[in-house]
Every structure is written in C-alpha cells, then in structure tokens.
Specification:
about 325 residues
Length: about 325
C-alpha cells in the first residue's frame, strides 16, 4: 500500500480540543507514509467548521467537512467514509497524536486480502502526569486506550478499537457504515435525554463484517502507536463509574443487533480470565506493600459489576421495547 491508498478521518465536535486537534492533524501530516488526504469531519458545529476551514486552508492534503448525517461519532465517521478516496481508511481520535510510522504499519497489515481491518496500540497521556494509583490497566478502555488483556505484537482479534483503527474500503461495501445510536454522541434511550459516553460502534461494525463475509480477519498491531490524552475529569472515579455503566448499555445494544454469541465472545474471556487475574494481582501487590493494589482490585470488581448491571438493564429495556412494538 502506498500513500495514494490511505485516507485518514478525524472527527471533532468541540472547540475545547482545538490544540489537541491541530496536534493530531500535524502528526498525520508528518507520517513516514504520507496519506492521500486528511478529512476532518465537524459534528454539527458551524462555528468550529468555519474556524477550522480558515486555520487549515493552507494544507493541501487536509479537507474540513460538516457531518452530513445524524449527530454523533458514527454519523461523522460515515460522512468521512463517503468522502474518502483511499482504499484504506484510517481513523484517529481528535485528542490523540500518532507516532511517525503509524500509517506505515497499518498499510503493511493489509498485505493479505482477507484482512478487513487493522488496529493499533493506544497509550494514555494522563493530565496529572502519571496514572492514578487506583486506576487498573484492565480498564484503560474506559478512556479509549489499549488495556491489559489485549494481545501484543501482531495478532488476530475480533474487533479493533475505533480511535486507532483502519479498514479496507471494501469492508464498508460489505456491511455498510457505522451504526447510529451506539457511538459517542448517541442517546441509548432514544428519548432525547442526556447523552451518555456510549461506545462500541466499531465492535458492532467488525462483527457485522464477520457475519457478512466469513473468513474476514482483523488484526491488532502494537507498532501502530498513538498517544491519547486523558483529561483530568477522566482520571476520577465518577467518570470511571459513568463510563462503565454506559459500556454495559452499549454491549446490550450490540448483542441485540448482532446476537449475544458474537456480540459477547471476547467479553466472556475478559470477564472470566482478565478481571479475576487483575483482582488477584492487586491483592498480591497489596501484600507486597503497595497500598494502592487494594484500590485497583476494588476498582476492577466495582467496574465489572457496574458494567454487568448496565448490560442487564439495557437488555431488559430493549426486550421491553421489542415487546411493546410487537403488540402494536
């Protein structure tokens, strides 16, 4: 794959991340494998759209677009997909910077035709300068980073993580785009209430691709590295709790759409192996003199429980909605 084959899509919704976004774009323009284009998609924010078009007007590889779909991350990504010209579409979060060989290793992963997507290693950049002592690595997915329990090197996975991912264009021809109602900016209840920090739209997409084209392969490659900012509010237990709850709701939606067998296949291993191992590790570290080990063990237990309850409640509500629709 050459530079003419890769389009990069960055979705943004707020001016609060202005400096982070400019750093993200700059990191893409400094890649060892330069992309064909960088598409910055603005999610229903006219002021930000105008400001970015003025600021990035001199970058010939960069195009700023308005989200032409419904509000939310899935709509923004689908706008970028429709506009992109490359055969490989790479996605980068607006508050992350990519290392110089990020795209090179992504492109290298598509050498075999059955590979439909490649994801990379996402490292957290803590606002406080260091990981909070209570924060377990098993839950780094809460802030969009690679978490303990994921593979190392290059390995086959069920799905990639959306903030640091790439897909073959033909994958979208097979399964369509990202589903609305699951990703960031979506309302899980569908009632116009407060928007929760939902996720999982890339998981649902990868599973649909698997189902539509059996034999499809997704890879994780830890040489495709990005550094993802974790703001101060996301270092607090309150955000951790809210994000775990939202993850449970998201998993319920995914299982409802693609079936619990495929929708929860990786999660079963995570719950039965990764989390118990993390709790035992934290308790062992406590016995060896690390007082924060007990806090990490407690965070793993509470995070797992909160997510499970969110999943159960989300599943119950979805079943209730389905029953009501059938009665009409």
């Amino acid at each position: 794959m050459g530079s003419d084959d890769v389009s990069v899509i960055i979705c943004v919704y707020t001016e609060d991340r202005w400096d982070d976004l400019l750093a993200a774009v700059d990191s893409v323009l400094k890649q060892s494998l330069l992309p064909l284009e960088v598409l910055v998609v603005v999610d229903h924010n006219p002021r930000l759209l105008t400001r970015l078009r003025v600021r990035l007007a001199g970058s010939e590889r960069v195009q700023v677009l308005p989200n032409s779909h419904s509000r939310g991350l899935s709509g923004g990504r689908n706008t970028g997909i429709a506009a992109a010209r490359g055969q490989i579409l790479a996605f980068l979060d607006d508050d992350a910077v990519a290392e110089r060989d990020w795209l090179r290793w992504f492109a290298d992963g598509f050498a075999e035709p059955e590979v439909m997507g490649v994801g990379g290693l996402t490292l957290p950049v803590w606002a406080s300068g260091r990981r909070p002592g209570w924060y377990p690595q098993e839950f780094d997915w809460v802030h969009g980073a690679t978490y303990r329990g994921m593979p190392t090197g290059r390995a086959q996975v069920r799905n990639v993580l959306g903030g640091n991912a790439s897909f073959r264009r033909s994958a979208f021809d097979v399964a369509g785009g990202f589903s609305a109602g699951i990703g960031r900016g979506a309302d899980a209840e569908g009632d116009g209430g407060p928007v929760r920090p939902l996720g999982g739209e890339e998981t649902e997409l990868c599973i649909r691709i698997h189902q539509e084209r059996p034999g499809s392969v997704f890879l994780f490659d830890d040489r495709s590295v990005i550094h993802h900012r974790v703001p101060a509010e996301r270092e607090r237990f309150g955000y951790f709790r809210t994000r775990c709850w939202a993850e449970g709701l998201s998993k319920a939606q995914i299982a409802d759409r693609v079936g619990s067998g495929d929708g929860l296949s990786s999660e079963r291993h995570y719950v039965s192996r990764t989390l118990p191992a993390g709790i035992l590790r934290g308790l062992g570290e406590t016995l060896r003199g690390d007082a924060a080990g007990l806090a990490r063990a407690a965070a793993i237990a509470s995070g797992g429980l909160i997510t499970a309850i969110g999943y159960a409640l989300g599943s119950w509500k979805l079943r209730g909605n389905s029953t009501r629709r059938e009665r009409r």
